[in-house]
Amino acid sequence: MNEHQNNPPRSATNDNRTRLRLFVEYDLEDGHAVPANPDQHNYLRKVMRRKDGDMVALFNGRHGEWLARIAYESKSRCVLIVEQHLREQRVPPDVWSLFAPVKASPMNNIARMSTELGVGRICPVLTEHTDVTRVNTARLRANAVEAAEQSTRLNVPMVDEPEIWRDCCTNGTRQDVSSCAPKRAVRNRCRRHCRVCSPAGHGRS
């Protein structure tokens, strides 16, 4: 008898390689019913065509990753019944991504790639030569959430409001950045773009 007849293929919805992952704000514990928000409900039902009883992985950045069962209550509402603990929560590395704002599409890509690389904080900074000063942090956060769901990380990085680069320097961020790159490169870059760190302005508050 054919070996495949005795071992039917696993459902894609229950395969670790293809299982959907959703980020939620609620606490995760065995037996909890987590309500899906409207966007998550639409994604599960209409985009991914998941059926009642299919499985989805949940994470909230605090309690690790859990397996939950989809339970549709109506055409516009569903809950996710938490059933099995998959992974313990890990403390993410204290790595920040600092960048000068650019146009919306490239900036969203920065948020996604920073999340995929595992950074813990996304920090737009305004330099003396920054052209783009308006930053949609809610959109950056949405892109970070989506990237986290599509990766294997168990949290979503924090997204800060834009801050002036010289304020970052005086608040101690310059030291954090220096520890992540060659000191000479950071010093030269900082001198070009920051009055505080320039030779004329060094030491000013």
In short:
This protein is an alpha/beta fold.
Query: What is the N-to-C order of secondary-structure elements (H for helix, E for strand)?
Result: HEEHEEEEHEHEEHHH
Oligomer: single chain
Number of helices: 7
End-to-end C-alpha gap: 80 Å
**Which structural category fits the helices and strands?**
alpha/beta
Q: Give the strand order, joined by hyphens, for the main sheet.
A: 1-3-4-5-2
Q: How does the major sheet shape up?
A: 5 strands, mixed
Mean pLDDT, to the nearest integer, reads: 80
Notes on the protein architecture:
The chain has 205 residues and is of the alpha/beta class. It has seven helices and nine strands. The strands form two sheets. The chain has a five-stranded mixed beta sheet. Strands 6, 7, 8 and 9 form a four-stranded parallel beta sheet that branches. It is elongated, with a radius of gyration of 22 Å. It starts with a helix and ends in a 12-residue tail after the last helix.
